[in-house]
Amino acid sequence: MPRQVLLLACDSSDLRNVSAGEWLVLAPAMLWAGSERLVVTSHPVIDSAGADDGEVGGGEEGGGVVGGGEEDHGAEVGGGEVIDRHLLTALLERRELGEALREVQIEQLGRWRSTGREGAPVHWGGHLAMGAYGDVNAPTWLPPSRRRYVHAGLLELLDDAAKDSATAGRHVLTGNGLMVKLATHGFAEELPKPRRLIALILVRPYELAAFGRAAKNPVPALRATPDESVFELLRSAAAIARAAGHPVVNVEHLLVAVLGASGRSALLARTLSGWDGRQPEVVKEIIGDTQAGLQDTSLPETPHLTADTVSAVYAALDAHMPGPQDAAPWYTTDR
Q1: Total structural domains in the chain?
Q2: Could you tell me whether strands 248-249 and 149-150 are parallel, antiparallel, or unpaired per DSSP bridges?
Q3: Which residues, 6 or more positions from 281, have their beta carbon under 8 angstroms from its beta carbon?
Q4: Where does the record place the region Disordered (predicted)?
Q5: Are residues 184 and 97 part of one domain?
């Protein structure tokens, strides 16, 4: 998407459909897609008029969209064409559109005041600058548009899995241990009844054993370090979120990574659940609603993971380390 876009169409910044729930009209859509600066129109633009600019009823309306400076306009030079050509020239010369708009509007205003006929505001008054004009360096606390976040629930899941490994006397959290923890996370409740019963039969002994170990040591101080297989699953989860265009990596993305992994444990998980994380329709079903609702991307307490491990987890997920601005839940549509 070009950094500067010139939208010389009628009502290219029209927001009348907002009341009907359609926020992403043409001009905001350009900013959403990545453009920084636009020149748009707020109402139908009259390109030319008769001998007297005061007679505007028979003029033509604005002609076409220019994005990146590839289109030209007709040979006639009326009131509107003067502005269009000036802005188009500035775009081709890679000058700032906002400054070019200011120059031509001041020039046309002077002509209108001196002649009373030429350069009437009806031709140029609807042209507006939209976007990041002035200092485009955003404050450091504002998140970049493509920044990735991690849901607090994913860190809590990893910490719980590390706790189970530590209380069992294992100081390394393996991919298999993480898979078992995912099985006890509640996803089995979504399975058909026969599969759910089988999953519960297999998982229940693990849960009881973990409960018994925790009862013996109510406040375990031990920690477990994830091994490379865990980090490989985290990188896969990040890739799945990236492919889906999701700014927040959730537990569901990790589940899909597990269901799409190689190895016996992943094969067993696919067989028991009937979910194949390698199938696009299955992936869509699992992660489709993860970005809806409030997202808690704060940094939870992780007593069973070291600070270095937590940093490595965020690095594997290619995600932003939470700061003060992430303390409160937020909607993905707000960032």
Answers
A1: 2
A2: parallel
A3: none
A4: 49-79
A5: no
